[in-house]
Structures are given as structure tokens and as C-alpha cells.
Amino acid sequence: CVILDVQAACPDATVTQELLKDGFHRDLLVTVELGAAGEDAGGCAVAARIRLPPGIYVDPYELASLQQHNVTKAVLIPDTVDLEAPEYLATDLLILLYMEADPRCSRCFRAALPVHGRYHRPADGSEEALVVLKSPQVLLCCCDNRFAECRKPAEVEAPCLGKNVGPCQWHSLTHKTAHEESILQVPVGLRQHSSLVCVVTLLSTALCATLILAAVCKYGHF
């Protein structure tokens, strides 16, 4: 499948993204509304191409479970993710999120994706780190020759419906956004608390080790 740029003859779109819930575990809700030309896009697939910065990631095992239950359809690039890496050792991720038609609006599409914040370095004087999530790119994929005059060379390849089927041609729609970016606020530790955390951790470890050793001596068989 080939992703192609689109000129004025193609439908435009309005895209909105929202981060729901609080803390490290969030839901990213993406909504797309096609312009007037979108009335001619019946039978076409719509997707959002989302670039996640290092401070936020998608769990591929969670995504596979959601796709198995037909809850979310998406392609993760790369498809392997280090779930334990902190923000300063992680890399960007690319998500192709396939949109579902909104029954309340003939030109509207929406999809939700669970995302998770990574641990950041302790900060000085702030209990939150800000992760900036840019507005997604809106893509349109049609199985016929509609919008053929809009086609240009592609940058990324992906299947139409989240399966290894093809070929299909994606068009990048000209779009406007409700907000150019979303801000994810991730809780972080304070650097001035480092000594206290180390002491408490050491004492807790020593206490737990003592309790385990006492239980082994009392109930163990040697």
C-alpha cells in the first residue's frame, strides 16, 4: 500500500485528538470529520498517522489483544517496543490508527488507542513532565480510481485495513486541527527527594530480606 499526497481536488478534513484519563495510563481519542467532498468517499478507509514521542508508547501486547477482540485496528512501527525503557532511552513510535465510521455523522470517523507514559528523570521543583503530542496526519484509502488526480510519490507503506492485503493507495488529506498539539502530563519524582527514596528503599529491602530469612529458618527444611 502506498501513502500519497493529496492536492485541492481531494476532500479536506478536520481532526481532533483528546487524551482521556489521568496519570501514566491514558486513552488517545482521535476524531476526523471530512469536508463536503467527503460525501463522495463512501467505501473508502480513513486512518490517522500518529507519531508518538519517546515519552509515550503503545503496548504491542495490549494492542494485539484489542485487535483480536476487534476493538482497535492499528499498525505499530516498529512492531517491537521496549516497555521498560525510560523516556531518555526510548525512541519515537509511528502508529497507523484505522478509524471507524461514526453512525451519528455520515462524514465522521473516530478511534481510540490506549497509550502509556514512560518514566522520566527526576526533576527540580516540578512534579510533572510535559510530553507534547503533535496533531496526526489524516489518510484516505479508496479501492477505486476516485481522487486519482491527487496522487504523488509516497513516503510510507501500510495495508488498507490492518491486514497484509493490497495493494491500496493512501492519500494524505489537507486538514485543520482543533489544537496543533496535545500535552500529556506525566508524574515525576523530585530530585531533592533522591536521598530519602534511597534510604527508604534500602530499609524496606533489608526488612523484607530479614522477614524472608526468619520464615525460612522457622518453617524451612534443610
UniProtKB/TrEMBL annotation:
Membrane topology: Single-pass membrane protein
Pathway: Glycolipid biosynthesis; glycosylphosphatidylinositol-anchor biosynthesis
A Pfam family hit: PIG-X
A cellular-component GO term for this protein: endoplasmic reticulum membrane
Listed GO biological process terms: GPI anchor biosynthetic process
UniProt keyword list: Endoplasmic reticulum, Glycoprotein, GPI-anchor biosynthesis, Membrane, Transmembrane, Transmembrane helix
Parts of the chain that traverse the membrane: 194-217
Source organism, top-level taxon: Eukaryota
Principal place of residence: endoplasmic reticulum
Subcellular location: Endoplasmic reticulum membrane
Family: Belongs to the PIGX family.
Purpose of the protein: Stabilizing subunit of the glycosylphosphatidylinositol-mannosyltransferase I complex which catalyzes the transfer of the first mannose, via an alpha-1,4 bond from a dolichol-phosphate-mannose (Dol-P-Man) to the glucosaminyl acyl phosphatidylinositol (GlcN-(acyl)PI) intermediate to generate alpha-D-Man-(1->4)-alpha-D-GlcN-(1->6)-(1-radyl,2-acyl-sn-glycero-3-phospho)-2-acyl-inositol and participates in the sixth step of the glycosylphosphatidylinositol-anchor biosynthesis. Probably acts by stabilizing the mannosyltransferase PIGM.
Protein name (record): Phosphatidylinositol-glycan biosynthesis class X protein
